[in-house]
Each structure stands twice: as C-alpha cells, then as structure tokens.
Design brief:
mainly alpha; 5 helices
Length: 96
C-alpha cells in the first residue's frame, strides 16, 4: 500500500535516463549485465518512471558478483521484489 510520504517522495524524484541507467550499472561493476539486459530493459516498462536512486539502492543492497550476468527474467524478479519491499518500507537504510 502506498503511503502519502512514499507518493510525495516519488513525485520529487527525477526519472532516470537511459544514460544514467547505464552509468549506474557500470558504477557497480555490472556493465556486462547491462549489455545483456539493455534491449529488454528499454522495451519493457520495468524501470520506467524510476529514479536512479532506486537502482543504486538495489545494487547496494544485493550482492551480485561484479561481471555477473543474468537473464532479464531473473533481474526483473529481483528488482520487483526490491521495489515491493522498499514501498512497504521494510528495507534497512543503506548508505551508498
């Protein structure tokens, strides 16, 4: 359930561009993963209307090996679970 605070936070966040998405993947050592997922990420609505903060928080919270690859379906599963947990405010605060 969305709280008013979450909705206000969401409205105040800038939506991530394609270039920013690529840079965040690279920053966390996942440029190969980005190259594998890029087309499906851009064609899907998975990260539409999301801020770079969400993706950075995701990579800070999950411990993927640098250089790891995965299918779009695996990535989509993990990011959806992460978004759900974040919306329900059950994740601990992670300092990037």
């Amino acid at each position: 359930m969305h709280t008013l605070l979450n909705l206000v936070k969401k409205e105040n966040q800038r939506i991530m561009t394609e270039r920013e998405m690529e840079e965040i993947f690279k920053l966390y050592g996942h440029s190969q993963m980005y190259m594998t997922l890029k087309n499906k990420l851009l064609l899907s609505s998975l990260l539409d209307n999301e801020s770079g903060e969400l993706l950075e928080s995701f990579f800070s919270s999950y411990d993927f090996r640098q250089g790891a690859t995965m299918s779009y379906e695996e990535f989509a599963f993990h990011i959806r679970v992460f978004k759900l947990l974040e919306e329900q405010e059950v994740l601990p605060e992670v300092n990037c």
